[in-house]
Amino acid sequence: MRNGEAPALRVVTGGGLSGGAVGGGARLRAVGHPRDGGRHGGSGGGGAFDWRAELELVAPDVLLPPGCSRHALAAAEGSLGLRLPPGLVEFLEATDGVYDIDSHHWYAWSLERLVDENFEAERPSDLLLIGDDAASGWFCLSLQGTGALHYDRITAQRRTLARDLRGLWLGWFGGTLGV
């Protein structure tokens, strides 16, 4: 997105999150077209993971704004003083956050909010905050690469939810994962 442009949001109709898993056991799939010369690895077979298609499959009632530019991602890394995990870069290149229409909440944060929230004084230094549960918890990635976690800000309890970002967001938005 260029400076001064508003994100163009696209509404995808059908299904919903309130009824639990959508699609009656739909399988995840990798898209077989390479992107960025395999820079982010994708999933198996050299093809990039198609975040937009998979999120629309498991959660048709979400808004997916356009993805972030490489320039914006590099600026965010500079602000945070760290390299974003490749899976998060791939996600943010596909969509700048995810808005759940049913709950009226941005569970998966935009790049701008992700940077802002990671300067939160309460943030454990070994975690990268990437979203929230609309209550007292943050969704996080371990900076040691040990998975996607839920961090309860009240109790300081950590719970591993998935082995990676794919498992977290597809499970959360698909209704198969909760906190």
Describe the structure in your own words.
The protein has 179 residues and is α+β, with helices and mostly antiparallel strands. It has one domain (36-174): SMI1/KNR4-like. The chain has five helices and seven strands, in the order H-E-H-H-E-E-H-E-E-E-E-H. Strands 4-5-6-7 form a four-stranded antiparallel sheet. Strands 1-2-3 form a three-stranded antiparallel sheet, with no helix packed on it. Helix 1 (51-58) runs parallel beside helix 5. The longest helix is centred in the middle third of the chain and has 11 residues, at 70-80. Mean pLDDT is 79; it is low at 1-45.
Over all CA atoms, what is the radius of gyration?
A: 16 Å
How large is the share of residues in beta strands?
Answer: 15-25%
Helix proportion of residues, in percent?
25-40%
Say which CATH homologous superfamily is assigned: SMI1/KNR4-like
The CATH C-level name is Alpha Beta
Q: What do the pLDDT scores average to?
A: 79
Structural class: alpha+beta
Biggest sheet strand order reads: 4-5-6-7
| Count of discrete structural domains | 1
CATH architecture: 3-Layer(aba) Sandwich
Shape: globular
Element order, helices and strands?
A: HEHHEEHEEEEH
Question: Uncertain regions: pLDDT < 50 for 5+ in a row?
Answer: 1-45
How many separate helices? 5
CATH topology: SMI1/KNR4-like
